[in-house]
Design brief:
By secondary structure, this protein is of the alpha+beta class. It is built from 2 helices and 12 strands; from the N terminus they run E-H-E-E-E-E-E-E-E-E-E-E-H-E. The strands form 4 sheets. Strands 1-2-6-3 form a 4-stranded mixed beta sheet, with no helix packed on it.
Amino acid sequence: MDVVVWNMGHRVRSWSGLANLEADVALLSEARLPKSLGSSIQGGESTEGLDRYPRRWATAIVSKHGLQRIEDARSWRNGRPLKIPFAPSRPGSWEAAQLLQDGKPDVTVISLYGLLDEKSDASMHRSLSELTPIFEDPRSAIPTSIAIRLSSKESGPSA
C-alpha cells in the first residue's frame, strides 16, 4: 500500500501533484479542498483552535479506495465503554477513518495536525488523548497509520 503524508500548505494547486503520486491513501495537513476531486475524501473543510482564529484548511484523508469515518470509537473502563464523544476538541485538527478494501475495513488511518493556537505540545497531547479510543476499541485490532505534522500558524508556503 502506497501512503503519502503531506503538508499541503493551504495550496489548492498541490492537489495536482498529489494526484500524480497515485497513492492508495494520503494523510494530509493544511489541506484546502479543490472544487472537484475524484477520490474518497474526509476532512479538509476548516480548523478552529482555542484562539478562534479562522483557518480555511484542515487535516484530511484522501483515498482511491473507500473511506469509512470513525465516529463511535470508545474508551473502556471496568469492562464498560465510557460515554465520551469521539471527536476533536479542535475541529479540523485530526481525522480518523477506516480504509475499505473490497467494501470491508482493512486499515485504520489517522491524519493529525499539531495546531499552534497555544503550545503545539498541548495541542498534540490533547489530540492524542482524544484518539486513545481507537487503540482501545476492539474493532481497531487492524494496523493503524498515523501522520503527525507540527506547524506554526505563521508558516507560509514552502518552495
